[in-house]
UniProtKB/TrEMBL annotation:
GO terms for biological process: regulation of signal transduction. Keywords: Protein phosphatase inhibitor. Residues 79-104 are annotated as: Disordered. InterPro entries: PPI-2. Belongs to the protein phosphatase inhibitor 2 family. This is Protein phosphatase inhibitor 2-like protein. Gene3D superfamilies: 6.10.250.1050. The keyword Ribonucleoprotein does not apply. Transmembrane segments: none annotated. GO terms for molecular function: protein phosphatase inhibitor activity. Pfam families: IPP-2 (PF04979).
Length: 139
């Protein structure tokens, strides 16, 4: 709580009743959200490189990368997680001639569907050009 007053020179002053503020806004029995946290802090385990003080080296030798990829091939069941093109070639070898033909026709139809949107755009452009030419000829 504060009060305004006018001092002899016509200046306004402000006076704070600090004891009233302490009594009303900061009672001793209230914590106002200052809770004590009993849980321990989350542990942080730095990487070995950080402990040694060295900076991270992101350069990986190609030889190391190839050897690591070779190690992945030795893990059973890893091929199911990362299907490769080799797997599709192996599957294709196991197919009968009829199934191969069926697969080839299916892939052609799928490609046609993906190019259908482009073909529609081209057709619309051709129709629009022809209409413009007809309008120019009639004028």
């Amino acid at each position: 709580v504060w009060t305004r007053g006018v001092v002899g020179g016509g200046k306004k002053t402000m006076t704070w009743d600090e004891m009233n503020i302490i009594a009303t806004l900061h009672p001793t029995d209230k914590t106002y959200g200052h809770m004590k946290i009993d849980e321990p802090k989350t542990p942080y385990y730095p990487e070995e490189e950080e402990i040694a003080g060295s900076s991270r080296n992101t350069d990986v030798a190609v030889d190391q990368l190839i050897s690591r990829m070779g190690l992945l091939e030795n893990i059973p069941g890893i091929s199911n997680l990362f299907p490769s093109q080799n797997a599709s070639e192996e599957e294709e070898e196991e197919l009968s001639p009829e199934e191969k033909e069926k697969k080839r026709v299916f892939e052609q139809k799928r490609k046609m569907i993906y190019t259908e949107g482009k073909n529609l755009k081209l057709a619309r452009e051709l129709i629009a050009r022809e209409e413009q030419e007809e309008q120019e000829d009639s004028d």
